[in-house]
């Protein structure tokens, strides 16, 4: 059947989206087009990201950047590119972006979809050439198409997502997304300008031996978390923390592991944002057989109360997320 063809490694993203369009009960054409718009913007951001270093020294070779103005920060450029692709695509009515304080109302009378996006997460890593990522969530608007955007359109729980994904600008550039029918990974071939299916039907290992947490703030962790981390050391797990959420998450999804950004006394809700970081990765995680909580409840169940609200994040292999929660519940003081 065509669906089997869809999973043959090497199929392009465009072809995959088209074949899998039957997965959507309605508005299939629009969601497919929206996914293509996001893929297009990620190709442009990929090019800008790879040029960033050169652009900075462009002057030395007599070039100026395309805008002919001061080289903008890459996350600003990424935001512009995604905003442009999403508004030109015609499917989106509103956008919540890490880069904009307010909701962006595209005044699009026919747009059915709302997008929450972090155009370039971890952009502080660009100058030191470490992988960075784009994270996005897609929702159907709640209020009638064509009516003014209401707050309930943009503040939906993660469980309402119709699709979510990330782009990892790493040693190779990958686009990984779900529409609620499993998770598929595509690798970009720049010479052809195409994403090719490289990781069909991604499934996370149920357990793992990699933990990702910034131990520099260990002294601010709750006792249960401290005990869990001590246990990881006793078991000689690998500590892997890149400082780029998408890169840490992607590696843990493939190899098994847990990423933790906890609440601390200094940051009672952690650091990561619910609407355009945690929700998207939580949807991917659950669709790949992994788990995502704020330490107490599923990320996807959290009812947002503000656009840029933060949430603690425990995400990765089910057994690891469950085990750290057990330690925190028992609040096992360090023996
Ligand atoms: P810290 C990057 O700024 C980011 O949002 C994530 O990509 C990353 O995992 C985290 O923050 C790093 O934060 O406090 O450990 O430097």
UniProtKB/TrEMBL annotation:
<dbReference type="InterPro" id="IPR000146">
    <property type="entry name" value="FBPase_class-1"/>
</dbReference>
<feature type="binding site">
    <location>
        <begin position="121"/>
        <end position="124"/>
    </location>
    <ligand>
        <name>substrate</name>
    </ligand>
</feature>
<dbReference type="GO" id="GO:0000287">
    <property type="term" value="F:magnesium ion binding"/>
</dbReference>
<keyword id="KW-0479">Metal-binding</keyword>
<feature type="binding site">
    <location>
        <position position="277"/>
    </location>
    <ligand>
        <name>Mg(2+) 2</name>
    </ligand>
</feature>
<feature type="domain" description="Fructose-1-6-bisphosphatase class 1 C-terminal">
    <location>
        <begin position="205"/>
        <end position="328"/>
    </location>
</feature>
<feature type="binding site">
    <location>
        <position position="121"/>
    </location>
    <ligand>
        <name>Mg(2+) 2</name>
    </ligand>
</feature>
<dbReference type="GO" id="GO:0006002">
    <property type="term" value="P:fructose 6-phosphate metabolic process"/>
</dbReference>
<dbReference type="GO" id="GO:0006094">
    <property type="term" value="P:gluconeogenesis"/>
</dbReference>
<dbReference type="Pfam" id="PF00316">
    <property type="entry name" value="FBPase"/>
</dbReference>
<feature type="binding site">
    <location>
        <position position="118"/>
    </location>
    <ligand>
        <name>Mg(2+) 2</name>
    </ligand>
</feature>
<comment type="similarity">
    <text>Belongs to the FBPase class 1 family.</text>
</comment>
<keyword id="KW-0460">Magnesium</keyword>
<feature type="binding site">
    <location>
        <position position="241"/>
    </location>
    <ligand>
        <name>substrate</name>
    </ligand>
</feature>
<dbReference type="GO" id="GO:0005986">
    <property type="term" value="P:sucrose biosynthetic process"/>
</dbReference>
<dbReference type="InterPro" id="IPR044015">
    <property type="entry name" value="FBPase_C_dom"/>
</dbReference>
<feature type="binding site">
    <location>
        <position position="214"/>
    </location>
    <ligand>
        <name>substrate</name>
    </ligand>
</feature>
<dbReference type="InterPro" id="IPR028343">
    <property type="entry name" value="FBPtase"/>
</dbReference>
<feature type="binding site">
    <location>
        <position position="120"/>
    </location>
    <ligand>
        <name>Mg(2+) 1</name>
    </ligand>
</feature>
<feature type="binding site">
    <location>
        <position position="98"/>
    </location>
    <ligand>
        <name>Mg(2+) 1</name>
    </ligand>
</feature>
<feature type="domain" description="Fructose-1-6-bisphosphatase class I N-terminal">
    <location>
        <begin position="12"/>
        <end position="200"/>
    </location>
</feature>
<feature type="binding site">
    <location>
        <position position="118"/>
    </location>
    <ligand>
        <name>Mg(2+) 1</name>
    </ligand>
</feature>
<dbReference type="GO" id="GO:0006000">
    <property type="term" value="P:fructose metabolic process"/>
</dbReference>
<comment type="subunit">
    <text>Homotetramer.</text>
</comment>
<keyword id="KW-0963">Cytoplasm</keyword>
<dbReference type="GO" id="GO:0042132">
    <property type="term" value="F:fructose 1,6-bisphosphate 1-phosphatase activity"/>
</dbReference>
<keyword id="KW-0119">Carbohydrate metabolism</keyword>
<feature type="binding site">
    <location>
        <position position="271"/>
    </location>
    <ligand>
        <name>substrate</name>
    </ligand>
</feature>
<dbReference type="GO" id="GO:0030388">
    <property type="term" value="P:fructose 1,6-bisphosphate metabolic process"/>
</dbReference>
<dbReference type="InterPro" id="IPR033391">
    <property type="entry name" value="FBPase_N"/>
</dbReference>
<keyword id="KW-0378">Hydrolase</keyword>
<dbReference type="GO" id="GO:0005829">
    <property type="term" value="C:cytosol"/>
</dbReference>
<protein>
    <recommendedName>
        <fullName>Fructose-1,6-bisphosphatase class 1</fullName>
        <ecNumber>3.1.3.11</ecNumber>
    </recommendedName>
</protein>
<comment type="pathway">
    <text>Carbohydrate biosynthesis.</text>
</comment>
<dbReference type="Pfam" id="PF18913">
    <property type="entry name" value="FBPase_C"/>
</dbReference>
